[in-house]
Design a protein that fits this description.
Helix content is 39%, strand content 10%. The protein is an alpha/beta fold. The chain has a seven-stranded parallel beta sheet with strand order 2-3-4-5-6-7-8. A two-stranded parallel ribbon has the order 1-9.
Length: 468
């Protein structure tokens, strides 16, 4: 790509301001906007954001999420050069959190007002670490994904929190199996630049799950399965501006094709001590805001764009609001269990004090994903998400069938349950809901419905089985 010039920058700004569709080259040019050009770009992006909020009847709203982190395992088969989350087995008391520990963390969060359990974990640790494999085998699970599913069901049914799953790369079949137990899932694309994965010394070299083609395939499969999905880009890991723009366009293409991307995160690289990239340069404040603004312009007014507030200081968070972020994410750091609920709200308010915007809590699955026929949260998970809405005006809280921080008053007994070896209470064995017609016939004492064959109509005198 040619170097951006003043003329190309002015032209791209004018087109963005006019609401014209940008191409990758123009987006890459805008990613280089600084000083007065950056101010102009921020104004355009802010107007796009505000138009989207007004269109959905939420003008001036900033959302945040009350969530508790559940670090299911810190083992991972990948070796990202900037990662501080993954570690080695001998530094951990156990390869995974026990199921009871998971429920205890979620229950502590629920007691303090959290609505969401954000499962964080490494990618398929059992394929690299024998300790992880042995831990799962001892408990009868064949993979991390199987165990994650069991824990998500436990959290959903025992605490009422909505699981948001981040297990990394998943197959189509795994997405199908996880969909009924989680209203939303996520996986960062990070970058579409293959060279950062394939070239020795690149930040993703040696990490099989970070191949961009594999991650794009997961985004597409999530779209085919219809999972409300969060993804995003990681900026400042060595990608060029053109590659950054291409990553945003790759997300936009998938989002437009399947309509399942509900949130895009723009995450800034931070050089953390103890990592291979501890000496690498971090993206500056202007570069970060510029990227958020370009993401807003490229992805349009209706996309939820989020910048992780735990990677910015309070002043920077306010500046990010000007860069067209409607979503704040007032989260504690991974593993931090105390201080949710009220503390969340207080922290989020602190971060945005002095800004004329309304702070609103958001569930992990956005309302239009709960209602849309497709892509949508699975009916079992959506029922839990619907129950998470605030009580209607004029209706006593006790009249709600389910409310947060307590156990369900009307337990969702038909939420499907994974059949673990030896488990006798599984209803369906897998992700299918019970067949209503069969249940109706059993109630009438007619026995399960048998498959009708050609000619039955004449044999039973035209009557349907089970009817008088
Ligand atoms: S995939 Fe990379 S960033 Fe994620 S936990 Fe594994 S090593 Fe860390």
């Amino acid at each position: 790509m040619r170097e951006p010039t003043d003329t190309s920058l002015r032209r791209a700004l004018r087109r963005a301001g006019d609401g014209r569709a940008l191409d990758v080259t123009e987006a890459a040019v805008l990613l280089d906007a600084r000083a007065a050009a950056l101010d102009e770009l921020l104004a355009v992006a802010g107007a796009v954001r505000d138009a989207g909020l007004a269109d959905t009847g939420r003008p001036g709203v900033v959302t945040y999420s009350k969530k508790v982190f559940v670090p299911l395992t810190r083992l991972c088969r990948d070796r990202c050069h900037y990662c501080t989350f993954a570690t080695v087995p001998h530094r951990l008391p156990a390869a995974y959190l026990e199921r009871d520990e998971v429920v205890a963390i979620a229950a502590a969060g629920a007691a303090q007002g959290c609505k969401e359990a954000l499962f964080t974990l490494g990618d398929r640790p059992e394929e690299r670490w024998p300790q992880a494999r042995a831990w799962l085998e001892e408990r009868g699970y064949s993979s991390t994904v199987d165990y994650l599913r069991a824990c998500a069901i436990a959290v959903l049914e025992e605490t009422g929190l909505l699981p948001h799953l981040n297990p990394g790369v998943l197959s189509w079949a795994e997405l199908q199996r996880l969909k009924p137990v989680a209203p939303s899932m996520g996986m960062m694309l990070e970058t579409s630049a293959t060279r950062l994965w394939s070239d020795p010394g690149g930040p993703h070299y040696g990490s099989p799950d970070k191949e961009p083609a594999v991650r794009l395939r997961v985004l597409e499969d999530a779209g085919r399965v219809g999972v409300p999905f969060t993804t995003g880009i990681l900026i400042g890991i060595g990608e060029t501006l053109a590659e950054r723009a291409e990553s945003l366009f790759a997300i936009r293409r998938v989002a437009r094709e399947y309509g399942h991307i509900q949130e895009v995160i723009v995450q800034n690289f931070r050089a953390k001590p103890g990592t291979a990239m501890h000496g690498a340069a971090e993206p500056g404040d202007d570069e970060f805001r510029c990227t958020v603004a370009v993401a807003r312009v490229v992805l349009g007014p209706r996309m939820h764009i989020q910048a992780p507030p735990n990677l910015s200081d309070p002043a920077q968070r306010l500046r990010l609001l000007e860069a067209a972020v409607p979503g704040a994410d007032a989260v504690p750091r991974a593993g931090e269990v105390a201080g949710h609920g009220g503390a969340h709200h207080a922290r989020a308010q602190d971060g945005y004090r002095g800004h004329a915007r309304t702070l609103v809590h958001a569930l992990p699955v956005w309302p239009r994903r709960r209602r849309a026929p497709r892509p949508h949260a699975h009916r079992s998970a959506a029922r839990h998400a619907r129950a998470g809405r605030p009580p209607r005006r004029g209706r006593r809280r006790s009249q709600q069938s389910v409310y947060w921080g307590r156990h369900s008053r009307r337990p969702h007994s038909n939420a499907d349950t994974w059949r673990r070896p030896g488990c006798v209470h599984s209803q369906h064995g897998d992700a299918r809901a019970p067949r209503r017609s069969g249940a109706r016939h059993r109630r009438r004492g007619a026995g399960p419905r048998r498959r009708r064959k050609r000619g039955d109509h004449h044999r039973d005198g035209g009557r349907r089985p089970g009817r008088d």
